[in-house]
Amino acid sequence: MSEEPQKSVFLVMSGDFDHAFAAFTMASTAAAMGAEVTMFFTFWGLKAIQKGNLTGKRFFGRMVGVMNRGGIDRIGPSKFNFGGIGRWMFKKMMKDEGVVSLPELRQTCIDLGVKFLACNTSMDVMQITLDDLIPGVEAAGAATVMAEAQQAQSQWFI
Amino acid sequence: MSENVTPALVLDLKGLLCPMPVVKIAGAIKKVDVGAVIEATATDPGVMADIPAWAKSTGHELVKMEREGKVITFWVKRLK
Prior knowledge:
- The structure holds 2 protein chains of 2 kinds.
- Helices cover 41% and strands 15% of the residues of chain A.
- Chain A is of the alpha/beta class.
- Chain A has a single domain (7-157), classed as Hypothetical Protein Ychn, Chain: A, CATH 3.40.1260.
- By secondary structure, chain B is α+β, with helices and mostly antiparallel strands.
- Chain B has 2 helices and 4 strands.
- Chain B has a 4-stranded mixed β-sheet, with helices on one face.
- In chain B, strand 3 and strand 4 form a beta hairpin.
- Chain B starts with 8 loop residues before the first strand and ends with a strand.
- The model of chain B has no long low-confidence stretch (mean pLDDT 93).
- Classes of the chains: A alpha/beta, B alpha+beta.
- The interface between A and B is medium-sized, with 17 and 17 residues.
Protein backbone atom coordinates (compact mmCIF):
# COMPACT_ATOMS: atom_id res chain seq x y z
CA MET A 1 0.00 0.00 0.00
CA SER A 2 2.42 2.67 1.14
CA GLU A 3 5.56 3.03 -0.97
CA GLU A 4 8.07 2.80 1.87
CA PRO A 5 8.08 -0.52 3.70
CA GLN A 6 6.80 -0.37 7.27
CA LYS A 7 9.36 -0.95 10.01
CA SER A 8 8.89 -2.72 13.31
CA VAL A 9 11.39 -2.93 16.14
CA PHE A 10 11.25 -5.40 19.01
CA LEU A 11 13.22 -5.07 22.22
CA VAL A 12 13.16 -8.54 23.77
CA MET A 13 14.12 -8.36 27.43
CA SER A 14 12.44 -11.51 28.71
CA GLY A 15 13.89 -15.00 28.49
CA ASP A 16 10.56 -16.64 29.28
CA PHE A 17 8.93 -19.07 26.88
CA ASP A 18 5.59 -17.25 26.64
CA HIS A 19 7.24 -13.88 26.07
CA ALA A 20 9.64 -15.24 23.44
CA PHE A 21 6.70 -16.92 21.74
CA ALA A 22 4.78 -13.65 21.55
CA ALA A 23 7.86 -11.82 20.28
CA PHE A 24 8.62 -14.31 17.49
CA THR A 25 4.92 -14.57 16.57
CA MET A 26 4.52 -10.82 16.16
CA ALA A 27 7.90 -10.44 14.44
CA SER A 28 7.20 -13.18 11.88
CA THR A 29 3.75 -11.72 11.27
CA ALA A 30 5.15 -8.22 10.79
CA ALA A 31 7.64 -9.60 8.27
CA ALA A 32 4.87 -11.57 6.53
CA MET A 33 2.92 -8.32 6.25
CA GLY A 34 5.82 -6.75 4.41
CA ALA A 35 7.57 -4.90 7.23
CA GLU A 36 11.30 -4.64 7.80
CA VAL A 37 11.76 -6.14 11.24
CA THR A 38 14.58 -5.82 13.77
CA MET A 39 14.67 -7.75 17.02
CA PHE A 40 17.07 -6.58 19.72
CA PHE A 41 17.73 -9.16 22.43
CA THR A 42 18.94 -7.91 25.76
CA PHE A 43 19.65 -9.46 29.15
CA TRP A 44 17.51 -12.59 29.64
CA GLY A 45 16.21 -12.15 26.11
CA LEU A 46 19.61 -13.34 24.85
CA LYS A 47 18.58 -16.86 25.80
CA ALA A 48 16.19 -16.94 22.84
CA ILE A 49 19.14 -16.64 20.43
CA GLN A 50 21.78 -18.66 22.28
CA LYS A 51 23.04 -21.93 20.82
CA GLY A 52 22.71 -23.52 24.24
CA ASN A 53 26.33 -24.32 25.01
CA LEU A 54 27.84 -23.45 28.38
CA THR A 55 28.96 -19.84 28.47
CA GLY A 56 31.15 -17.69 30.68
CA LYS A 57 34.86 -17.26 31.12
CA ARG A 58 35.27 -16.38 34.77
CA PHE A 59 33.54 -17.77 37.86
CA PHE A 60 30.36 -15.66 37.94
CA GLY A 61 30.00 -15.81 34.19
CA ARG A 62 30.21 -19.60 34.34
CA MET A 63 27.62 -19.64 37.11
CA VAL A 64 25.26 -17.66 34.88
CA GLY A 65 26.12 -20.04 32.05
CA VAL A 66 25.25 -23.12 34.11
CA MET A 67 21.97 -21.64 35.38
CA ASN A 68 21.06 -20.40 31.93
CA ARG A 69 22.25 -23.33 29.78
CA GLY A 70 20.32 -25.03 27.03
CA GLY A 71 19.24 -22.19 24.76
CA ILE A 72 15.77 -21.80 23.32
CA ASP A 73 14.75 -25.39 23.99
CA ARG A 74 15.20 -24.95 27.74
CA ILE A 75 13.19 -21.78 28.12
CA GLY A 76 10.44 -22.13 30.70
CA PRO A 77 7.13 -20.25 30.96
CA SER A 78 6.96 -17.18 33.20
CA LYS A 79 4.29 -18.89 35.31
CA PHE A 80 3.66 -22.56 36.15
CA ASN A 81 7.15 -23.73 35.29
CA PHE A 82 7.42 -25.97 38.39
CA GLY A 83 11.09 -26.69 37.83
CA GLY A 84 10.66 -27.66 34.18
CA ILE A 85 7.42 -29.67 34.37
CA GLY A 86 5.45 -26.66 33.20
CA ARG A 87 7.75 -26.24 30.23
CA TRP A 88 7.20 -29.84 29.22
CA MET A 89 3.44 -29.53 29.77
CA PHE A 90 3.07 -26.35 27.69
CA LYS A 91 5.19 -27.79 24.89
CA LYS A 92 3.03 -30.90 24.83
CA MET A 93 -0.23 -28.91 24.91
CA MET A 94 0.94 -26.70 22.07
CA LYS A 95 2.15 -29.65 20.02
CA ASP A 96 -1.19 -31.42 20.52
CA GLU A 97 -3.01 -28.34 19.24
CA GLY A 98 -0.69 -28.10 16.24
CA VAL A 99 0.98 -24.86 17.28
CA VAL A 100 4.38 -24.35 15.72
CA SER A 101 7.32 -24.90 18.10
CA LEU A 102 9.42 -22.03 19.41
CA PRO A 103 12.59 -23.04 17.48
CA GLU A 104 10.52 -23.37 14.27
CA LEU A 105 8.98 -19.97 14.87
CA ARG A 106 12.43 -18.44 15.34
CA GLN A 107 13.58 -20.11 12.11
CA THR A 108 10.51 -18.67 10.37
CA CYS A 109 11.61 -15.20 11.45
CA ILE A 110 15.11 -15.86 10.06
CA ASP A 111 13.66 -17.16 6.78
CA LEU A 112 11.52 -14.02 6.47
CA GLY A 113 14.59 -11.82 6.85
CA VAL A 114 14.05 -10.57 10.40
CA LYS A 115 17.27 -8.98 11.65
CA PHE A 116 18.55 -10.22 15.02
CA LEU A 117 20.69 -7.92 17.14
CA ALA A 118 22.26 -8.84 20.49
CA CYS A 119 22.92 -6.27 23.20
CA ASN A 120 26.69 -6.08 23.49
CA THR A 121 26.64 -4.78 27.08
CA SER A 122 24.48 -7.71 28.22
CA MET A 123 26.81 -10.05 26.36
CA ASP A 124 29.85 -8.58 28.12
CA VAL A 125 28.22 -8.67 31.57
CA MET A 126 27.02 -12.25 31.16
CA GLN A 127 30.23 -13.30 29.37
CA ILE A 128 28.40 -14.43 26.26
CA THR A 129 30.21 -14.13 22.93
CA LEU A 130 28.87 -14.01 19.36
CA ASP A 131 30.07 -17.63 19.02
CA ASP A 132 27.55 -18.58 21.73
CA LEU A 133 24.71 -17.16 19.63
CA ILE A 134 23.00 -18.62 16.57
CA PRO A 135 24.58 -17.65 13.21
CA GLY A 136 23.63 -14.33 11.67
CA VAL A 137 23.22 -12.38 14.91
CA GLU A 138 25.07 -9.08 15.11
CA ALA A 139 26.10 -7.25 18.28
CA ALA A 140 24.74 -3.73 18.71
CA GLY A 141 24.02 -1.10 21.33
CA ALA A 142 21.22 1.17 22.47
CA ALA A 143 21.86 3.89 19.89
CA THR A 144 21.45 1.41 17.03
CA VAL A 145 18.12 0.26 18.41
CA MET A 146 16.95 3.81 19.12
CA ALA A 147 17.86 4.92 15.60
CA GLU A 148 15.86 2.01 14.17
CA ALA A 149 12.95 2.58 16.56
CA GLN A 150 12.74 6.26 15.55
CA GLN A 151 12.31 5.14 11.94
CA ALA A 152 9.78 2.46 12.82
CA GLN A 153 5.99 2.74 12.88
CA SER A 154 5.67 0.16 15.65
CA GLN A 155 7.97 -0.54 18.56
CA TRP A 156 7.54 -3.48 20.91
CA PHE A 157 8.97 -4.08 24.34
CA ILE A 158 8.64 -7.68 25.42
CA MET B 1 -15.75 -14.42 -9.16
CA SER B 2 -13.75 -17.21 -7.59
CA GLU B 3 -15.76 -19.75 -9.55
CA ASN B 4 -14.52 -18.27 -12.82
CA VAL B 5 -10.87 -17.93 -11.89
CA THR B 6 -8.45 -20.81 -12.02
CA PRO B 7 -6.12 -20.42 -9.04
CA ALA B 8 -2.44 -20.30 -9.89
CA LEU B 9 -1.69 -22.04 -6.60
CA VAL B 10 -3.76 -24.11 -4.18
CA LEU B 11 -2.64 -24.11 -0.56
CA ASP B 12 -3.72 -26.44 2.20
CA LEU B 13 -3.32 -24.61 5.50
CA LYS B 14 -5.61 -26.88 7.48
CA GLY B 15 -4.35 -27.60 10.99
CA LEU B 16 -2.01 -24.62 11.04
CA LEU B 17 -2.48 -22.04 13.77
CA CYS B 18 -1.48 -18.39 14.09
CA PRO B 19 0.89 -17.04 12.85
CA MET B 20 1.57 -19.74 10.25
CA PRO B 21 -1.40 -19.26 7.86
CA VAL B 22 -0.40 -15.62 7.31
CA VAL B 23 3.28 -16.56 7.05
CA LYS B 24 2.49 -19.22 4.44
CA ILE B 25 0.27 -16.89 2.40
CA ALA B 26 2.96 -14.22 2.48
CA GLY B 27 5.50 -16.70 1.13
CA ALA B 28 3.13 -18.06 -1.50
CA ILE B 29 2.07 -14.69 -2.90
CA LYS B 30 5.66 -14.04 -3.99
CA LYS B 31 5.64 -17.23 -6.05
CA VAL B 32 2.72 -16.29 -8.31
CA ASP B 33 2.48 -13.60 -10.98
CA VAL B 34 0.81 -10.25 -10.40
CA GLY B 35 -2.89 -10.71 -11.06
CA ALA B 36 -2.82 -14.41 -10.18
CA VAL B 37 -5.09 -15.87 -7.52
CA ILE B 38 -4.22 -18.26 -4.71
CA GLU B 39 -6.87 -20.54 -3.27
CA ALA B 40 -6.30 -21.62 0.33
CA THR B 41 -8.15 -23.74 2.85
CA ALA B 42 -7.64 -23.35 6.60
CA THR B 43 -9.19 -24.50 9.86
CA ASP B 44 -7.88 -21.81 12.23
CA PRO B 45 -10.85 -19.48 12.81
CA GLY B 46 -8.31 -16.70 13.37
CA VAL B 47 -7.80 -16.44 9.61
CA MET B 48 -11.27 -14.88 9.31
CA ALA B 49 -9.82 -11.71 10.84
CA ASP B 50 -6.13 -12.14 10.04
CA ILE B 51 -6.25 -12.69 6.28
CA PRO B 52 -8.27 -9.48 5.70
CA ALA B 53 -5.79 -7.62 7.94
CA TRP B 54 -2.85 -9.07 6.01
CA ALA B 55 -4.46 -8.13 2.68
CA LYS B 56 -5.12 -4.58 3.87
CA SER B 57 -1.53 -4.09 5.06
CA THR B 58 0.19 -5.64 2.07
CA GLY B 59 -2.11 -4.23 -0.60
CA HIS B 60 -3.17 -7.57 -2.04
CA GLU B 61 -6.82 -8.37 -2.63
CA LEU B 62 -8.91 -10.77 -0.61
CA VAL B 63 -11.27 -11.81 -3.37
CA LYS B 64 -13.56 -13.99 -1.33
CA MET B 65 -13.73 -15.90 1.92
CA GLU B 66 -16.25 -18.56 2.84
CA ARG B 67 -16.75 -20.92 5.72
CA GLU B 68 -18.28 -24.36 5.64
CA GLY B 69 -18.31 -25.95 9.05
CA LYS B 70 -14.74 -25.81 10.30
CA VAL B 71 -13.13 -25.32 6.92
CA ILE B 72 -12.50 -21.80 5.69
CA THR B 73 -11.68 -21.27 2.03
CA PHE B 74 -10.37 -17.98 0.72
CA TRP B 75 -8.96 -16.56 -2.47
CA VAL B 76 -6.29 -13.86 -2.54
CA LYS B 77 -5.09 -12.02 -5.61
CA ARG B 78 -1.58 -10.67 -6.00
CA LEU B 79 -1.91 -6.99 -6.92
CA LYS B 80 1.71 -5.84 -7.07
